[in-house]
Amino acid sequence: MIRKSTIIAALFLTLPVFALYYSAAQATDERSVSTIPARDAVIAQRVVSMAPNITETIFAVGRGGCLVGVSDFCVFPPGALVLPKVGGFFNPNLERLAALQPDLVILQGKHDKVDRFCRARNIATLHVSMDSLSTIYSGIQELGAALGASARAQELCAKIKNELLAVQKKADRYPKRKVFVSLDRAMGSMANLYTIGGASFLSQVLEIAGGENIFSDVDQPYPEASKESLIKRAPEVILEMRPGETISSEKRRQLVAEWRVFPKIPAVRRGDIHVVAEDFVLIPGPRVVKIARILAEALHGKGQHG
Q: What is the torsional sign of CA 162, 278, 81, 74?
C-alpha cells in the first residue's frame, strides 16, 4: 500500500494519482490559460490560490494582501497560515470558495470542477502549469501580470536565475555524480519506487546542483522505477525525499539501512545515501534556489553551497 506523500502543487498526492494530475496540468500545453474576460482586465483584488507554489509566488511578488483564501496545503509563508482554507485538488470546498467572493481563482493545471463552478458564477480563473524551470519563470510572470506586479515578477525571475547560476558555478568544481531520487517510499518496503523523470523541474535543479538524474531519459515527470532498472543504472548517490517528515537520528539510520537490499549499487556500497526532509523540496516555486542548495550540499558536502 502506497502512503500519502507530501508532494507538490495543488495538494500533496499519492504519486500514481499525482502523475495523472500532472498529465492534466501538462494538457495546458506548457502555457498559462486564462478565462479573465478582456473587458474586465483590471487588477484582481480578491484572489483564491489553489496551490502552494502559486501562493508562495503571489507573496514573493508582493501581492499577498490580495489573497482571501488558499488551499489546505498552503503553509508558507507564515501569512498563508492565517488565510481561510478552501480544500485541495480532489476536495475543493466550493461553498467556502463562493463565500469568499473572489474576483479571481488561480489553479495549477486544469480543474474541470472548479472551472465549471466559477464559470457559472462569472468568477475569472487563471491556470498556470509550473513544473519545469521555464514554466516556473513564465508562471511567475503570468501571475505578476494578473496581479499588477509585473516589475516585481521580472525582478524575482532575474534573482532566481542569477542565484541558480551561482549554485551551478560552485557545483561545476566537482565531478558530476549519478543520482537516484526516491519519492514516496514507504518505510520497510522497496515496493513502488517512484522517482523523477526528465520532465520534472527537480531533475533540472539536480543537474544545476551537480547531479546526473539516472532517469532523466524518461519523459514522465514522476515515473515508477523498477528494481532491475535501478540496479542497472547504478547510481552513485541516493537522495531519499521525505518532505515535511520529522526525521530522528534513529529513523534516518533505518531509512539508510533499508537500501542494503541493493548491495551492488555503488551508492549503497559507499553509504552515499542522504535523507532530505525539508517540506518545500518538491514545490516548484520561488524557493527553487533553496532546493538547489540543499541538493548541492547533499552531493558535495555541507557548507559548499550556503
A: positive
